[in-house]
Amino acid sequence: xxxxxxxxxxxxxxxxxxxxxxxxxQRTPSTSMSVxxxxxxxQPPSEDLDLETTATGDRSxxxxxxxxxxxxxxxxxxxxxxxxxxxxxxxxxTNKVVVLGGGSFGTAMAAHVADRKxxxxxxxxxxxxxxxxxxxxxxxxxxxxxxHKLPENVIATTDAKSxxxxxxxxxxxxxxxxxxxxxxxxxxxxDPCLPFISLxxxxxxxxxxxxxxxxxxxxxxxxxxxxxxxxxxxALELMNxxxxxxxxxxxxxRLANATQQLLASSHLRISxxxxxxxxxxxxALKNVLAIAAGIVVxxxxxxxxxxxxxxxxxxxxxxxxxxxxxxxxxxxxxxxTGDIMLTCFVNLSRNRTVGVRLGLGEKLDDILSSMNQVAExxxxxxxxxxxxxxxxxxxxxxxxxxxxxxxxxxxKKAVLELMSLPQVEEV
Length: 427
Prior knowledge:
By secondary structure, the chain is of the alpha/beta class. The protein contains 18 helices and eleven strands. The strands form two sheets. It has an eight-stranded mixed sheet, sandwiched between helices. Strands 1-2-3 form a three-stranded antiparallel sheet, with no helix packed on it. Helix 10 runs antiparallel to helix 11 (303-323), helix 10 (276-298) packs across helix 17 (396-405) and helix 16 (376-390) crosses helix 17. The longest helix is centred in the N-terminal third of the chain and has 40 residues, at 46-85. The protein starts with a strand and ends in an 8-residue tail after the last helix. 39% of the residues are buried.
């Protein structure tokens, strides 16, 4: 009988030879021989293998680190080269900026611009005398962001003429549904060459107009310079100087670049775009989608349904926006997907809050009456559906939100209806 034992290092063979003492009796061992063969020539010792593996791993890690370091250094060199060519003459030439509206985002942007240059005058046109007095006497907006002190060069007024006189740029933060009447009242004081940088997101309910259409028409000047500023940006975080990124979109490339120079800082990145339609439509529709996301939270429908709903909503926004002439890359970029993620997933969103309370069973009128800020998605929802019909686009999620807002569908019924839609191929 032979038994063979093998290892990576050696081979051992044991052989037992049996010789019978009596053919009819059980065999007994007569001879035993053991042979041990070293196998060092065929395979290295395990210690050598371990050392070689370790050395190879170390070299591989060093190579990876070197590649990453070189890539980062290349990026830094490119950044420094680009910054050295960046012009800052726009900020140097700017002496006065006017902000229309005294809400939270208008206030945050006023503070941001004022911090860019101490000699810059930033005038906020507000309608509430109490807010005006609070800003001028105490450097606080007592109604919005009351815990944050404003720079000394932020000045509030209720007089449109004095606010607009001599302004180099105008930041417009009046809610969409009130913009037309507001601007018509002050149109006589607006310089026809004054660039309007719109911070407002939404669609006018009855006319389906975007801000790029509302502002020039309300001012009776089709050539009024216009920029749409949009992106994932909460006023509170902007005031706290947390890293933020936005997009300045204008059909006038020089104006988009000037806006970038005016606003970009160490904590605010400004990208430029020529796709005004894409930036505006994404900014308007994401508010409606945020209401749907809030409903999911309020009804405690779970993470799976939230992911499915937001993905479907993103597709619906892309379908409509591209039909209207927007670039698909805009919808998947900062002012599209970026803004959608922020508004749908974070508690600071006003529109999401409306949805949460609807999902909990509260009445819309009670919700809106308890809020001191405008949730644009509520009024935009109906306009979105009208646009969808105009461009022949099916938008089941956003249509369901509009029906809930119109009190024609309960959130629970809407979920059942959406889950009962035909099973189709994803597009």
